[in-house]
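User: Quick one: structure for sequence A, then sequence B.

Assistant: Sequence A:
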Amino acid sequence: MRVLIADDHAIVRKGLREILREASEATTVGEASNGSEALDKIHREAWDVVVLDITMPGQNGLEVLKELKRLQPGLPVLMLSMHSGYHYVMGSLKAGASGYLNKETAPEELVTAIRTAIDGGIYVSRSLADGLNLDL
């Protein structure tokens, strides 16, 4: 499994990388600290899934998501953000995200969401889905 993590906080990227490495020895993790770097890595390498933060310097995650879906519509993208408002979640899903997780998500839920996205499904954190009354 090849996962690209795009988040402007190094400590978050490191934590996510460790969660994924603990979950599967067969995981290759790449990192990007902003939207431009994420798009560059997506152009240069093949990824199975992208985990993308919304709030980043330069291009925000929603802008990157829209560009990604234009360039590689079949590439699953999971949004991982501190923002949990309805417009963030639904805006991301409408723009083509394969799921949405808040940064308070349990580590096991991240792994489940990635596997769901790679398998072609949609995953929203249960706490978000329940709190926003989403029917998924």
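Sequence B:
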Amino acid sequence: MMDDTIMMETDRPDTPEPGVSERYRIPKWPFVLAAVFMVIGIAIAIAWPIKVAYYTLSPGPLYDTSDFVHVIGEDEVIDGEMFFLTVSLREANLFEYIAAQINPKIGVAPRQNIRPTGISPEDLRRENLARMQQSKTDAQFVALTKLGYEPTYIGTGALVIETVPDSAADGVLLANDIIIDIDGNHVAFRSDVIDTLADKEIGDRVALTIERIIDESEDVAVIEVEIVLGVHVDDPSRPMVGVLLDNNNPIIEFPVEVDMDSQNIGGPSAGMMFTLEIMNQLTEEDLTGGLRMAGTGTISHDGTVGAIGGVTQKVHAAIDAGAVVVFIPAGNYDDAVAAAGDKIIVVRVETIDDALDYLDYE
């Protein structure tokens, strides 16, 4: 029996030859796996820098409005917190674009909607800083007016920074033109251009009165031009002139000195929260009621709160920061409610009065 058993074992195909131990046989699969990972790594390294024609929108940081706004001579005693919300923009590569499709907190937008072709990053940055500057000035004007002051805020037109190539304005308007009238409606601020065109349709003709420097002596001529409105890059259903605008040296006299440092942040969407912060610092009662609240929305000098971009991401940022209330422009309300679920109270704001009503301001 012993001899038979030995014969059977040595006849197995997987039995090592005499003198060869299985302990020292090196398997091949780790090398194959390493090769696969190496190929994948090289492919990712090559493809990662390649950008697609989209930007990703992610929840940005929250900023405490009291860090940006200080009413000179007022000692702030506030128990609650007010934050304004931001969105982080990033030009996406293929992997980031794919990841955004499965992450509900991240959105995507065509590159053309963020920075139209032919517009330099410097021009876009200048316009965004101009929008922030007007937002701060409008916030001061609205806040002080609501508190019974009589501030002076006189606009002198909308200054053309640059025109968008192949847009309605291209070749008709020039950099440094000042728009002072559209279809008989006086233009005092850059926001008046947007408001005046709000009811227009694609293909409509609009007459603009502009001031233009005509020679090296810097003589200014007042001329009229006509533009046929084209398709807006953000929304194909809306019309667009195709200009980047700034305010043209408004005349400002405020009876209360307010120091506002926007810390190189661009865009107009902090306007509503700046307004509330100024009022809070000038009011004996704490408007926050001790709550941690956040918000977003533009502010016009008549108190209207305008819609903003990236509302879904901003609502998620407010939730992640532990805010219990978020103020949202009426134009973004439905999207904000969908993003919020039951995790935060969403307050619909059409004018600054809606926010003040919620805060029980009298």
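The domain at 156-249 is CATH 2.30.42.10 (Pdz3 Domain). The longest strand covers residues 51-59.

User: Thanks, that's what I needed.
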